[in-house]
């Protein structure tokens, strides 16, 4: 039985198989782009509230997997990649010269010029997915090293719901109670079983038992003070915003805050719009953040550090582990040191 195949016949065979594969690859990428477009269209028509978008994609993933099976490519992560694929290439449809797995890796490059240059290189040099990933890792490592050279702002994390007492010389204490400085020049009267024994120089933690607030000593470190849970109401520009702040003791205040240590470009400039847009994106994705305030500036805005974690609502974890937004803006070159 003859098992060999002539060179010309084999080359024709190889070419045919390659063309079938290239067509299928191009069609798959186009299909994923169209799916991403449809997801974005639903979001833009307000068919789903922004904060519920991820849950809708999760439901879509579950239903598509039930219909087409586990290996169909409709995982939650892949649907998110499809959405980001369309957002990234929304003006011109992609050339579809690369397979989907390579585009997924390229989507991690946020700099448009860098991504486009790497995409062209991947096509011209026929780079594998792992080669593309290594190039991106080297780029990110160099970028990280560059950011480390930027002098840090420095900060100390505070502790939620810790307070000091108002000086007795400033106000008369109620019988059986003390006056607590909640920050922002807001004072509250709190019952205390031993008010005369409480040291005004100490730091106290708020404790709620059976519906009533009391204080327990938390230490003497004043860096613990003035950390609050809050909701960002409006971003004015890259370094100024309005926030509704939870002071504890069922008390809230609305304040205009100024991010400490940085200065954003004027909001009417391109750089200013980019800085504002970045802050809006980061804080808009997070329903709750933690702030630490310092003294007020000449415009009576409290200088503030902001800490956030994507989709995190545990205030205590935000205070312990949150990303320091002020430094992040500085590292990304969106603001300058002030």
Keywords:
single chain, 338 residues, five-stranded mixed beta barrel, 13 strands, 41% helix
Largest sheet: 5 strands, antiparallel
Kindly provide the radius of gyration, computed on alpha-carbon positions and rounded to a whole number of angstroms.
28 Å
| Total separate domains | 4
Task: Give the termini distance in whole angstroms.
Answer: 83 Å
Instruction: Provide the succession of SSEs.
Output: HHHHHHEEEEEEEEEHEEHEHE
Strand pairing plus helix content: what structural class? alpha+beta
Number of helices: 9
The proportion of strand residues reads 15-25%
Mean pLDDT across residues: 84
User: What is the architecture of the largest domain at the second tier of CATH?
Assistant: Beta Barrel
Describe the structure.
- The chain has 338 residues and is an alpha+beta fold.
- The protein folds into four domains: 1-96; 101-149, no CATH class; 162-224; 227-337, OB fold (Dihydrolipoamide Acetyltransferase, E2P) (Beta Barrel), CATH 2.40.50.
- It has helices at 7-44, 53-68, 76-88, 100-106, 112-125, 129-148, 270-284, 315-321, 325-331, and strands at residues 162-165, 177-181, 187-191, 203-209, 212-219, 227-237, 240-248, 251-259, 262-263, 289-296, 302-308, 323-324, 336-337.
- Strands 3-2-1-4-5 form a five-stranded antiparallel β-sheet, with no helix packed on it.
- Strand 2 and strand 3 form a beta hairpin.
- The termini are far apart.
- The relative contact order is 0.08.
């Amino acid at each position: 039985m003859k098992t060999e195949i002539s060179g010309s016949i084999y080359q024709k065979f190889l070419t045919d198989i390659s063309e079938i594969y290239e067509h299928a690859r191009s069609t798959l990428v186009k299909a994923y782009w169209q799916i991403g477009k449809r997801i974005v269209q639903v979001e833009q028509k307000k068919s789903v509230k922004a904060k519920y978008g991820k849950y809708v994609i999760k439901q879509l993933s579950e239903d598509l997997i039930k219909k087409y099976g586990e290996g169909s490519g409709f995982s939650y992560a892949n649907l998110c990649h499809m959405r980001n694929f369309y957002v990234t290439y929304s003006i011109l449809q992609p050339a579809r010269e690369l397979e989907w797995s390579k585009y997924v890796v390229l989507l991690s490059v946020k700099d448009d010029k860098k991504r486009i240059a790497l995409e062209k290189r991947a096509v011209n040099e026929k780079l594998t997915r792992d080669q593309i990933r290594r190039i991106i890792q080297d780029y990110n490592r160099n970028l990280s090293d560059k950011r480390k050279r930027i002098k840090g702002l420095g900060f100390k994390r505070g502790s939620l719901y810790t307070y000091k007492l108002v000086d007795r010389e400033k106000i008369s204490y109620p019988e059986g109670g003390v006056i607590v400085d909640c920050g922002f020049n807001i004072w509250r009267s709190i019952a205390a079983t031993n008010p005369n024994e409480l040291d005004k120089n100490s730091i106290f933690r708020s404790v709620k038992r059976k519906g009533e607030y009391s204080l327990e000593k938390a230490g003497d470190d004043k860096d613990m003070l003035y950390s609050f849970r809050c909701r960002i109401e409006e971003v004015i520009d890259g370094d100024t915003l309005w926030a509704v702040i939870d002071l504890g003791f069922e008390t809230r205040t609305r304040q205009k805050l100024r991010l400490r240590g940085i200065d954003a470009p004027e909001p009417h400039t391109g750089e200013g719009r980019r800085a504002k847009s970045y802050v809006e994106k980061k804080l808009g994705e997070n329903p709750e953040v933690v702030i630490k305030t310092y003294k007020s500036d000449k415009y009576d805005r409290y200088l503030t550090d902001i800490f956030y974690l994507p989709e995190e609502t545990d205030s205590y974890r935000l205070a312990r582990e949150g990303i320091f937004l002020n430094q992040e803006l500085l590292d990304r070159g969106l603001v300058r040191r002030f």
